[in-house]
Amino acid sequence: MALTNTIYNSTVFQQACKQFDIAADILGMDPGLRERTKRPRRCVIVSMPVRMDNGQIEIFEGYRVQHNLSTGPAKGGIRFHQDVTLGEVAALAMWMSWKCSLVGLPYGGAKGGVVVDPRGLSKGELERLSRRYMQEILPFIGPNVDIPAPDVGTNEQIMAWMMDTYSNHQGHYDPGVITGKPIALGGSLGRKEATGEGVAWFVKSYLQDMGIPPEKTSVVIQGFGNVGSEAALALYNWGAEIIGISDYTGGVYNPKGIDLKAAMAHVEAHKNLQGFTGGEAITNEQLLELECTVLIPAALERVITEKNAGKLKCRMIAEGANGPTTNAADKIIEERGDIELIPDVLCNSGGVIVSYFEWLQNLQNYYWTKGEVFDKLYRMLAKAKASVDETKKKYNCSRRTAALVLGISRVAEAKAKRGLFP
Ligand code: NAD
User: Fold this and answer.
1) 292 vs 298: CA distance, rounded Å
2) Would the pTM of this model clear 0.90, i.e. be above it?
3) Rg for the chain, CA atoms, rounded
4) Residue 245 C-alpha to ligand 1 middle, in angstroms?
5) 329, 388 in Cβ contact below 8 A?
6) Which residues are designated catalytic?
7) What spacing in Å lies between the alpha carbon of 364 and ligand 1's midpoint?
8) Which of 107, 119, 195, 252 to mutate to test the pocket of ligand 1 (most atoms within 8 A of CB)?
9) Where are the domains of the chain?
10) Which atom of ligand 1 is nearest to 323's Cα?
11) How many CA atoms, within 13 angstroms, populate the side-chain half-sphere of residue 420?
């Protein structure tokens, strides 16, 4: 049965479904179980009236999609972006299901989104919107039900406001409802760095497999936000040269290596890279086609497409972002055979792994050192990498399909074993 509801008319959702179908074909899944595993379990749409600074009331739209609830509480970030759609959020929720399952976390998958450009709001407006969103999804979330986290356009301050709103409703401090919080409110050491650090861990590990040392590694990163800047810093500290970075305002290229600390200080002061003079200004399109060892898309979906996949001049793509490569581009990259692709569900899994650690620490009220967090993180990443590469060999398929085969098969098995209620 096709997913006929028009809310699913989104290229990103169709992209996630196509990826699912490729993996499900390999697994030879029974049609009933296949459809049950594929469909989002619950999609919530909320309208949020918010009083703006000028006294007017503005209505914002928000979503929470819980794709899978069969393997534990759902887990997934909240995105604040002007182009968010329900279909996109459903795709991101689906990827969360496979990612959590792939790395062995006791979670289902979810995602949230609010249609807003957060840069256009004052701090007060942002706080009122964040609290209102939490208020509206409150019946559907909780430490044992669904645990949100930050994503594009949200940060630890927003997580703090949301946690406070939830806790006020419960009548007590309940930090396990959300991850990515400030340390002072039960956040985990290492969570802020975790996704980028994990991306860098995979890049280093696969480069080692390829026999490429740090001093021969040049890196280009699209999206200099949380994930992109932390991955850049980890690879820079390892000894790689960061030759290109970008954000929504455009990119900067410096073949001699960008002064990363200066770039980060510029973003801290100006909120974006515009006006940064540490290299030649280029467009995001040009950036993706730069000659480099590693290309890290760390912004939004569908930036590597059939238009540029044939023109890429990198040896490796490390997907910091979710869904950056279209199905058509995947095919071209596979046919080219000269690019190692580390797929999103594996590559950026460090974020949800340390979110899981944060949740565990909250539930136990026992907090770990940063060393303990990273030690446990690296061990989980290494295990996931080994199982994906073994599956890739077993089915003679792409690394993305191997990762999805693992993630999807575990969710499907759990559903089959649970049976149907009633
Ligand atoms: P962020 O908001 O901190 O940063 C996003 C960056 O992308 C910003 O620098 C922004 O300017 C840039 N950007 C936005 N639109 C762009 C465009 N059209 N072209 C170029 N750059 C653009 O978000 P983030 O948390 O770093 O998330 C980035 C990606 O990583 C997303 O795909 C997200 O789903 C994924 N991800 C995030 C986490 C996490 O822990 N934050 C975990 C896993 C995956």
Assistant:
1) 16
2) yes
3) 20
4) 13
5) no
6) 111
7) 31
8) 195
9) 11-176, 192-342
10) 32
11) 4
Ligand 1 neighbour 198 (Cβ under 6 A): no
Asked if 373 contacts 350 with a C-beta cutoff of 8 angstroms, the reply is no
Say whether 110 sits in a helix, a strand or coil.
strand
Q: 11-176 belongs to which CATH class?
A: alpha beta
Q: Give the burial string for 216-244 (b: 16+ CB within 10 Å, else e).
A: ebbbbbbbbbbbbbbbbbbbbebebbbbb
Select the CATH number that applies to the domain covering 192-342 from these four: 3.30.1050.10, 3.40.50.720, 3.60.130.10, 3.30.360.10.
Answer: 3.40.50.720
Burial of residue 289 (number of CB atoms within 10 Å: 0-12, 13-18, 19+) = middle
Mind listing the pLDDT tens digit of every residue in the chain (422 residues)? 566 777 678 999 999 999 999 999 999 999 999 999 999 999 999 999 999 999 999 999 999 999 999 999 999 999 999 999 999 999 999 999 999 999 999 999 999 999 999 999 999 999 999 999 999 999 999 999 999 999 999 999 999 999 999 999 999 999 999 999 999 999 999 999 999 999 999 999 999 999 999 999 999 999 999 999 999 999 999 999 999 999 999 999 999 999 999 999 999 999 999 999 999 999 999 999 999 999 999 999 999 999 999 999 999 999 999 999 999 999 999 999 999 999 999 999 999 999 999 999 999 999 999 999 999 999 999 999 999 999 999 999 999 999 999 999 999 999 999 999 88
Quick one: CA torsion of 158, 163, 165, 170, rounded to 10 degrees? 170
Question: How are the residues of the chain apportioned to helix, strand and coil, as percentages rounded to the nearest 5?
Answer: 50, 20, 30
